[in-house]
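Saturday, quiet lab. Running sequence design on the structure tokens for the scaffold JK sent over.
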């Protein structure tokens, strides 16, 4: 591997899993951006992002006005709305009363030169980097874009307050762990059920809950006995 490749390996594994980005983290991203081969640039398409904003900005968006977020040199997005749901639920739980949760979507082109973190990890052979890949890069499908502080009403996918639990509703494509061992993908959410949701996957229905950062559950039987229901709610 070249010196540039080794540098990118160190920078990439340093970046993932940081959480809220500070000035030092922006410097790491800037160095990745300056040394990134074309093969690891985002090819363009739809990307999603979730942030918390003040109620005044949320109201402005509802009224059809543009708002500006805190300006930063880079912003983190995802190639997959389903991949972003874990972050969305964590941020919704941690919101204050004067905040709202914003999920947005935008279309970008190849010319905007986004950094495709997933492609970078794959290209550099970093899929064996344990948590760096399995908990972050391979899971979040992150794309880092330059700038991006302006939000238009057309970009808004959802706005939710602190107690609006519709924010966490499972969506198609999300992974669920059935009985903690079998991984399935959600086809659709049927609705709320006993502290969680009923979702379909293939021809089956499951009762799932948000359990320590994972959607987990058991097969759902509408004829279940009270004893079985007690097990589901444990």
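Result came back. Writing it out in full:
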């Amino acid at each position: 591997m070249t010196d540039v490749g080794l540098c990118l390996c160190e920078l990439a594994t340093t970046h993932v899993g940081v959480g809220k980005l500070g000035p030092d983290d922006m410097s790491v991203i800037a160095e990745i951006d300056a040394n990134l081969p074309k093969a690891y640039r985002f090819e363009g398409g739809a990307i999603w992002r979730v942030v918390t904003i003040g109620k005044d900005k949320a109201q402005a968006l509802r009224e059809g006005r543009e708002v500006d977020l805190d300006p930063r040199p880079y912003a983190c997005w995802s190639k997959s709305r389903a991949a972003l749901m874990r972050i969305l639920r964590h941020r919704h739980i941690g919101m204050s009363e004067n905040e709202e949760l914003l999920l947005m979507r935008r279309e970008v082109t190849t010319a905007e030169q986004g950094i495709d973190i997933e492609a970078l990890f794959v290209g550099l052979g970093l899929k064996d980097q344990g948590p760096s890949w399995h908990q972050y890069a391979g899971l979040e499908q992150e794309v880092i874009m330059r700038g991006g502080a302006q939000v238009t009403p057309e970009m808004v996918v959802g706005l939710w307050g602190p107690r609006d639990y519709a924010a966490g509703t499972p969506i198609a494509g999300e992974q669920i762990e059935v009985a903690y061992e079998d991984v399935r993908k959600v086809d659709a959410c049927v609705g709320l059920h006993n502290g969680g949701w009923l979702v379909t996957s293939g021809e089956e229905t499951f009762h799932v809950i948000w359990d320590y950062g994972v959607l987990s559950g058991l097969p759902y039987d509408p004829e279940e006995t009270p004893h079985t229901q007690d097990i589901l709610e444990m």
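Notes for JK: Residues 225-234 have pLDDT under 50 and may be disordered. Residues 3-160 form one domain. Ask whether to fix the surface positions before the next round.
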